[in-house]
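Side project, low priority. Logging it here so it doesn't get lost.
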Amino acid sequence: MMRTLIVAGIAESMPKGHFDKIIGVDRGALGLLEEGYNIDIAIGDFDSVDKHELRDIEEEAQEVIKLEPDKDETDLEVALLLAVERFPDSEFVIAGGLGGRVDHFLTNIYLPTTEKIKTSAENITFIDEQNIIQYRSAGTHIINQQPRHRYIGFHQVDTGNSLTITGAKYPLTKENNSKQTYTSNEFVSDTMEITFDKGMVIVIYSDDV
């Protein structure tokens, strides 16, 4: 599968591996340049870079899309919508989207659950030094353990509390499912299984700093 890297803001570290397309969002484009990446698309209102930095981005990126500062969507939301439309069969890895302002953080992690993006949600991953965030649509899923991430959490979005968890340290049944978020579960083998009837589940791999 094609892989697309999207860097939003300042990423603590860049994901490893090969990427077919690289997108820098606002100051994320500058971070990519500083790390020596070739940028396919730079997008944003670029209010977090100065005119000299913007000139560098314009000179180096294959394509630059300037957004209006006053808009209903965040820069990352516009970038992700663009990426999904242009590269519908891609996997999308987003770095730099989990830090900083809490309102931006919440907006970002819910983006894959929105109407225009949810069909690609299972191909979207947010990462930082401490977390991996993925998305699952209604059905039964095998969840694989990730290296260096001891804990796993599940956040239900419109599931009607139908989530069940089996093969984990802390199993969950529908009858006992009474809250939206379940944190600090652990693997007892390489995999566990989740099932839910509707909506979406945000899967959060994490570890202590």
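Brief comment: The first helix runs from residue 27 to 34.
Revisit when time allows.
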